Amino acid sequence: PCNTMDEVATLKGRVTHPVYLDESTEDQNAVLRAISMGIADGFGLKVTRLGGLTKMTTVRDLCAIRSLPHSCDDAWGGDIIAAACVHLAATVEPRRMEGAWIAQEYIDGHFDWKNPVVIEKGHIAVPQRPGLGVKPEAGIFGKPLATYGA
Questions:
Q1: Which domain covers residue 87, as residue numbers?
Q2: What does the buried/exposed string (b/e) look like for 98-119 if buried means 16 or more CB atoms within 10 Å of the residue's CB?
Q3: How far is CA 117 from the centre of its chain?
Q4: What number of other Cβ atoms are within 10 A of residue 96's Cβ?
Q5: How confident is the model at residue 133, as a pLDDT?
Q6: Residue 52 falls within a domain, yes or no?
Q7: Nearest Cα to 135, choosing from 76, 83, 89?
Q8: How many helical (H) and strand (E) elements, i.e. helices and strands, does the chain have?
Q9: What does the pLDDT read at residue 98?
Q10: What CATH number does residue 39 fall under?
């Protein structure tokens, strides 16, 4: 709701509704700071903004310890980041899960046309294939820069 966490701190005790932090929590340290200052009633979290799945799972666990609700969102990606968000959201205790947001409705096309990550009647199924559950169509990203393996 404000440009800085110090500004958010001035709201504590002055508003009657919960204060959720979103864009101001751009890394794990920002989340830790907000928790330690006691200024967040919850978080709107994006996997890419926090630095990937490993860092997001750490923040998820911090929220679990402090019983803070949060979301698991993507940042306008495609099927790959959507699958990551949905998988992570499925690991959050329901009473703390504020939802998962994916950009699927606003993006034309999929990386995996056979098993796309989509919203159906307000729900997103967790992909069941190996890994994140998404297998991009061959060549969709162009030629590889390098290949490794035997």
A1: 5-124
A2: bebbbebeeeeebbbeebbbee
A3: 15
A4: 15
A5: 92
A6: yes
A7: 83
A8: 5, 6
A9: 93
A10: 3.20.20.120
Beta bridge partners of 123: 120
Cα(31)–Cα(26) distance, integer angstroms: 8
pLDDT tens, 46-94? 999 999 999 999 999 999 999 999 999 987 888 899 999 999 999 999 9
Q: Has residue 58 been placed in a domain?
A: yes
**pTM for the full predicted model:** 0.84
Specify the number of domains making up the chain.
1
Residue 81's contacts (CB-CB under 8 Å, 6 or more residues apart) are: 47, 48, 74, 75, 102
Of 141, 77, 71, the closest CA to residue 106 belongs to: 77
Mean per-residue pLDDT over the chain, rounded: 91
Residues 6+ apart with CB under 8 A from 43: 20, 21, 22, 25, 31, 34, 59, 63, 68, 69, 70, 71
